[in-house]
Amino acid sequence: PKPVLDIFPSSPIAPVSPLIFSGFLEHLGRCIYGGILPASPSSFPYTSRNPCPKDHFVETPKELLTPEGFRKDVLEVLRDELAVPLIRWPGGNYVSSYRWEDGIGPLERRKRRPELAWGGEESNQFGTDEFIAWCRVAEIEPYIVVNMGTGTLEEALHWIEYCNGTGDTYYADLRRRNTGRDEPHNVKYWGLGNEVWGEWQVGQQTAVEYAAKARQWAHAIRLVDPSIKLVGCGESGPTDWDDVVLDRLVDKVDLHSIHLYTGFGPRDRSQTDREYGRTVYGPDAAEYSIEICKGLINKARLSKAISKPIKIAFDEYGVWDETVGTPQNGLEQFYTLADALAMASWLNVFVRQADVVEIACVAQSVNVISPLIVSPTNLFRQTIYWPLYLFSRYMRGGVSVRIALSSPTYSGETLPQWISAIRGPPADLDVSAVVYTSESGARSLRIAMVNRSEHRSYQVPVRVAFEDSVGSETRQVQVHELWHQDIKAHNGWGREREVSVKTRTAPWSGTWTFREHSFTLLVLTLD
Ligand code: AHR
C-alpha cells in the first residue's frame, strides 16, 4: 500500500508514563565499577572471561568525580540529558546470589565474594547506601530487586527494614549509623527476583514454585512496609510462565515484569554480519509480547476480581547481540545506526502501549550493552543514545494518541518467524504520536517515525483528524533526524558524533519525506 498516516489527537490511548525512560545498573563488567565509580584495580572483577580493557588502569582524576566519589560525566548525562527517572539495581542475574549485608558498613571491612552470575569477584565497594547516595545526586528513584535465588525471606525483610524502617529497630538503626542520617532511603519499588525461570539463574524455579514463594514473600514484605510497589517476575510476556505466575500472584503485586532483547547475532555464527531485518524489525516482538501479556493480566484479574490495574514493568529491554556483547568483554557492544533504529522502534512500542506499560528500563545504563561508553577520563554517546534522548525530551509528558498507518511491508527475514505468521509481515514505517500540552495550554503534536526500510525513502501524507491549524499559521515543523548513509555507521573514540541528530525547522505542507533507514521526530503546533 501507499504510505499514509492518520493521527487522531482527540482519541487518547493514555498519558505516556515518565517511567518508560528508566534505566538499569547491574554489577556486571564495567557498569558499576568504571561507569558509576571509577574503576580501580582492586575493585573491578577482572577475570580471563572478563579481561581488563587496555587503558583501564589510568586513574580517573578527582576533578571528574562528585564529592561522593561518583563519575560526574555519567551522572550528568543520565540526569541532565536523558532525565532518567528510575533505576533498577543490583541485577539482573547478579542479584540471585547477592548478599546485601556484604555491601554495607565501612568499605575496608566489606567481604569480597565469588560472583556467580558473570564470573570473577565482587568487592562490594558499591552497596545499598552508595546506590541510594548516587540516586539522590542523580535525582533518580531507586528500584531494588531482592535475591530470590540464594536469598531468604528473612534477608529480604531485613533489607527492606534497613532501607525504609523509621522505628527504633536494629536494621533501621544500622542504616542511621552507616549513613549518619535519620531519614530512610524510602525505596518504593521492589522486584521479587530476576528471571527465576531461566536455567542460567542461580536458584531457578518452576512457575508454580515461584508463584507460591513470591506470594509468601509479598505478604511478609507488605507487613514491613505496606506502602511499597511490588513487581512480580514475569518472563517475556506471552509465555506459560507469565500465565501461571499472573494467575497465582496477580492479587499480590502492582506490576508484572517482562524482559526481551533484540539485536540478534547472525544465525550462522561463523558469519560476522548481523542481519538487518532481524535487528531493525525485531522490536515488533515486544509489541506482541505486551499485547498478549495485557490479555493474561486481565484474565488473571478477572478470575480474582481485582479492580486495581496491574501494569507491565518492561524492566530489561534493549538491543543486544550476544555474539558481540559477551561476558568476556563485560557485554560491551558498539552500536550501529541500524541498532539505533531498533531502539527508536522499542520506544515507539512503549508509547503505543502507554495504557499498560508503566516502567521500561533500558538495559543497561552505562558500558554494559549501553548507550554510554566510558574510558577513565571520557565518555561517548552511542547511536542508541539518540532515540532515547529525543523520546525523553519530546514524548515525555505527552498523551499517546491513536494512529492509523498504511505502510509497505518488509519481506526479508525477521525474528521471530511465528510473530510474522500471526501478525503479518512487519511494516517498513513504524510510528507513535503524542499530544503535548504545555503549562500555558499550548498544544503540540509529536510524531516519532522510524523508516525501517534499508533502501527506500517514503513520502507520507500526514492527516491530523479534526485539527484546523496544524503547524500553526506559519506552517512550520521542527524536525529532528537521525540518519547516516551507512547503516553500519557507529560512534566511538575519536568519532563521537559520527551518528547524531540534526535539528532544523522546515516548511510544513502536510506531507513529509522520511529518508531510508532513518529516525525522525516531528514537532507540530496544533493551535
Ligand atoms: O542485562 C544482562 C542480563 O540479561 C541480566 O543480568 C539478565 O537479567 C538478563 O538475562
Described by strand count, sense and barrel closure, the largest sheet is: 9 strands, mixed
| Major sheet strand order | 19-18-21-16-15-14-1-17-20
How far apart are the first and last residues' alpha carbons, in Å?
32 Å
**How many domains, in number, for the residues?**
2
Strand proportion, as a percent range, falls in 15-25%
The CATH homology group name of the largest domain: Glycosidases
How much is the radius of gyration in Å?
A: 23 Å
Helical content class: 10-25%
Outline type: globular
Architecture of the largest domain, CATH level 2?
Answer: Alpha-Beta Barrel
Q: What's the layout of helices and strands?
A:
Blueprint: E1 4-15, E2 23-24, H1 72-81, E3 86-89, E4 113-114, E5 121-122, H2 128-138, E6 141-146, H3 153-164, H4 170-179, E7 189-192, H5 207-224, E8 229-233, H6 240-249, E9 255-262, H7 276-280, H8 284-304, E10 311-319, H9 337-352, E11 357-362, E12 372-374, E13 379-381, H10 385-394, E14 399-406, H11 417-423, E15 429-437, E16 443-451, E17 458-464, E18 476-482, E19 501-507, E20 511-514, E21 518-525
Parallel strand pairs: 1-17, 2-3, 3-6, 6-7, 7-8, 8-9, 9-10, 10-11
Antiparallel strand pairs: 1-14, 4-5, 12-13, 14-15, 15-16, 16-21, 17-20, 18-19, 18-21
Bound molecules: alpha-L-arabinofuranose.
